[in-house]
């Protein structure tokens, strides 16, 4: 992960807030979070991480102490700029003992290896994600398995799909919900249950958001969104995903569940 990727995300959040006024509020908060994560990223880069090739589970290599030290600044930021429910949660965590705070962050590292769709551990995700991205960038990319339903680097579920220009069409990748690694994935295949019948894999888009669509599965009832960079080459998938909640409303109204909620909780 290049450092400038944080700047690209921040810039994109500003642009999309203008393009999609209904998403302006959530994007304004997301921008605060991205700016905070960018500062964490600088902190992570300056520290030495375990050498590549160490055979520890990915999450065990993340530094809990760094996250514990960074938590108070995040709680203050969320109380200042976050939505009411999250701000309230931040205040409650702030009143907890430092042992309880450490336990909350530790439980995130322990719990998310399961195959269940991941809960939105907002505070832990914000704090660990820059570390995870940095660690993922130092690891050898595994040989491509274009039907792997979880991240080949850290084992988390995908957040969003992305179609990147390739020849006359596009190649589909999945983006990890935790470490942001992208891995190639077959076009007609459900990442949850492996359904391959295109008649059971409904796609949904709306006219005013041509580059993002819902990719759902009638067999397991899960969905994720897909960002088509052959249509909008300036898209930043994780940010475009947050900006298009209107599509999530459609999917949920039609009985689908999201594979992984985004950082903003939907
Ligand atoms: Zn990952
Ligand atoms: Zn499925």
Detail the topology: elements first, then pairings.
Elements: H1 4-19, H2 24-45, H3 64-81, H4 84-95, H5 98-111, H6 122-138, E1 158-166, E2 169-176, E3 182-184, E4 203-204, E5 212-216, E6 222-228, H7 237-243, H8 245-253, E7 257-258
Parallel strand pairs: 1-6, 6-7
Antiparallel strand pairs: 1-2, 2-3, 4-5, 5-6
Helix pairs in contact: 1-2, 1-7, 2-3, 2-6, 3-4, 3-5, 3-6
Bound molecules: zinc ion (2 copies).
Concise structural overview:
The chain is of the alpha/beta class and 266 residues long.
Describe the structure.
- This protein is an alpha/beta fold and about 270 residues long.
- The protein has helices at about 5-20, 25-45, 65-80, 85-95, 100-110, 120-140, 235-245, 245-255, and strands at about 160-165, 170-175, 180-185, 205, 210-215, 220-230, 255-260.
- The protein has 2 domains: about 5-140, no CATH class; about 160-260, no CATH class.
- β1 (about 160-165) and β2 form a beta hairpin.
- The model has no long low-confidence stretch (mean pLDDT about 90).
- It binds zinc ion (2 copies).
- One zinc ion binds near residues 136, 151, 154, 156 and 178.
- One zinc ion binds next to loops.
């Amino acid at each position: 992960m290049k450092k400038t990727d944080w700047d690209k995300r921040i810039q994109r959040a500003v642009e999309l807030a203008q393009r999609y006024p209904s998403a302006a509020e959530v994007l304004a908060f997301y921008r605060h979070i991205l700016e905070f994560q960018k500062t964490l990223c600088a902190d992570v880069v300056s520290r030495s991480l375990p050498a590549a090739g160490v055979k520890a589970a990915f999450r065990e290599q993340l530094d809990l102490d760094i996250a514990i030290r960074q938590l108070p600044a995040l709680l203050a930021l969320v109380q200042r700029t976050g939505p009411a429910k999250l701000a309230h949660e931040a205040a409650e965590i702030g009143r907890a003992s430092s042992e309880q705070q450490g336990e909350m962050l530790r439980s995130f590292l322990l719990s998310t290896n399961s195959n269940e769709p991941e809960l939105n551990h907002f505070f832990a995700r914000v704090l660990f994600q820059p570390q995870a991205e940095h660690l993922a960038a130092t690891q050898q990319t595994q040989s491509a398995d274009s039907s792997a339903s979880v991240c080949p680097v850290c084992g988390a579920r995908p957040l969003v799909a992305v179609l990147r220009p390739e020849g006359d069409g596009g190649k589909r990748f999945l983006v990890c919900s935790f470490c942001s690694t992208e891995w190639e994935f077959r076009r007609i295949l459900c990442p949850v249950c492996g359904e391959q019948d295109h008649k059971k894999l409904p796609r949904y888009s709306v006219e005013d958001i041509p580059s993002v669509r819902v990719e759902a599965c009638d067999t397991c009832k899960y969905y994720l969104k897909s960002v088509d960079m052959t249509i909008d080459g300036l898209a930043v998938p994780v940010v475009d995903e947050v900006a298009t909640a209107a599509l999530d409303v459609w999917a949920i109204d039609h009985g689908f569940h999201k594979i992984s909620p985004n950082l903003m909780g939907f």
